[in-house]
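Q: Can someone sanity-check these two? First one:
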Amino acid sequence: MAGIFRHVCKHLFVRPLGIAAGFCLAGAMFAFAALAFAQQPTEAPSGFDNQTNGLVDQKTHDLDRVAFDRVLGIEDGLGPLYSGQSCRECHQNPTSGGASQVTALRVGHLDAQGHFQNPAIPVAHGEQVVKDRSLVNDRAICPNAASPKTDIQERVPDTETVRALHMSLSLLGDGYIEAVPDTTLLAISKDQCRKTNGKICGQALRVPIVEAPGQMGVGRFGWKDQQASLLSFAGDAYVNEMGITNKLFAKEVLYLCNTIREPNEGPGADGLENLDFIGRFLRATEAPARDAAQAAAPSSERGSELFATIGCDTCHVATLTTAPAGTKINGGAFTVPDALGSKTIHPYGDYLLHDVGTGDGIVIFSSETAAATGSTPLTDLQATQNKVRTAPLWGVRLRPRLMHDGASLTFSDAILRHKGEAQQSSQAFEKLGRDDQQALLDFLRSL
């Protein structure tokens, strides 16, 4: 950059090496230093105070949160099959966008080759069959006054012997996760394999980006990394968890009892739909904050060192950095803004799929999450059968139920449950002395 400024100075001053040129060169060096400083990563804002991270102003963020919290009814297109009436219903602890105790039920069966297959669930006394998805909804809008004899509630057939519960995930700070480059996650996977001689190799799953037809990205949202963008994730949840068809998912799961036009959502005067507000809300949330007092305690600091020593940080990666502002992501459908660009975050997760011995047996096919937008090789999908996404540990102190199914109730339970790729770290924890074990648990309680 200094060379460019010197070239300009030559044309502005007769004596480029004189005082004027000196000032010009000094200005060039200052501009270069300012540019370098501007590109240095900065810490992402964190908290549970419903404040915007700077992506939008506070008034806009508050209005977007209203859209996230909004309770939907049949008149809005709810159902006919659904599990919740608002985004907040499943994502609320300790505030809108957080985790919850709510679980989603997924089922299926294995074919003769041992491959997972989606279920076929008859409803309305066999009049129709719900297929092409593993999710089983907890609720239905029928029978009702308009259709008193139409019973469409899903029930798991005896044939579907693969069954799993998935805890609702925290979405706070996920705007930063969306802005982490695909190359970063791929590099983490490669580095894991190299450092552990192939014992730990996170699977990066390339999935369709629904808002960018034909484009693929590294999945990072959902227990199976089934979505790569927050808008895709929100659209998927809208149609599958609430039955609200939208611009990304315009096809109903079931048409019985459905009397609302499709898609249920339509743009307002500003050209935005509820889905856009929800996506913007998630992108503007702050990262989960640590318990500052607990983090500063000597036992927690010691526990942080032990966490790394026994290898927990191989998958629970402490620090990630987002792409610079101006970077196009999601197949070109989104440009990283200043508020999300070059930010340092501490999620304690690699957002990759691993077999840690607690596999749910579920495969989420692309036909369920992004029909007609592309496909992921079937072999890659089947390889996810007994894998789940590494649970990010930021905010974990606020979750009373742990692991993908919520079956572990203490940090010790969760650690000792780790097998498979995490067997060595789990055994190393068991071998620690009582004080060291307590220090590591104190560290987790600070996250």
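And here is the second, same format, sequence then tokens:
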Amino acid sequence: MSVKSGIEPKPFDLNIEKILEDWEVYHALREVIANAIDEQLLTKTQEIEITKDKDGNWRIRDYGRGLKYEHLTQKENMEKLTNPNVIGKFGIGLKDALATFDRRNISVLIESKYGDITLGKLKKHAFEDISTLHAYISLPSDPNFIGTEFTFKGVTLSDIKKAKDLFLKFSGESKIEKTKYGDVLEKRDTTA
């Protein structure tokens, strides 16, 4: 997966060395799926897509407004803070996911109309003894792209299944009742 703009990508420091040693790939995929679902809910656009392409890469796509490099910073998102139906709130999950993909040697390409983003390591400015994870921002390969698409090289079907199973909409579980404390789900197997 390469960026096609022909212009040198600009590094954006994510300020991450190594974190989340215990996170597996499916934990990171969960964060990407959660962001896609949030964007779908906020923009009232079509369902997100989770597909495998002809090259064996997995893709997660929403049809919302498109990811910008500014979304890679950690900050409170007032739109999400005031909406009780969304999952994310602070911009931490995506950075955690990107760090996990890097740690697990998963190649990532993020595409939107605002740019193409890949990952790599770079020495920290003025501190040559520290390398941090950077998002490399390039011009968009398709400036008319609708939404955001993540393409993953190295993700397995098992990773996708485990990540999807963490969401009610994909898990096949049924909601029996809604209470002030949360939803009561029908038991699927012998474990509550």
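A (reply): Looked at the second one. Residues 39 and 151 are 17 Å apart (CA to CA). The helical segments are 25-43, 78-81, 92-103, 157-164, 168-171.
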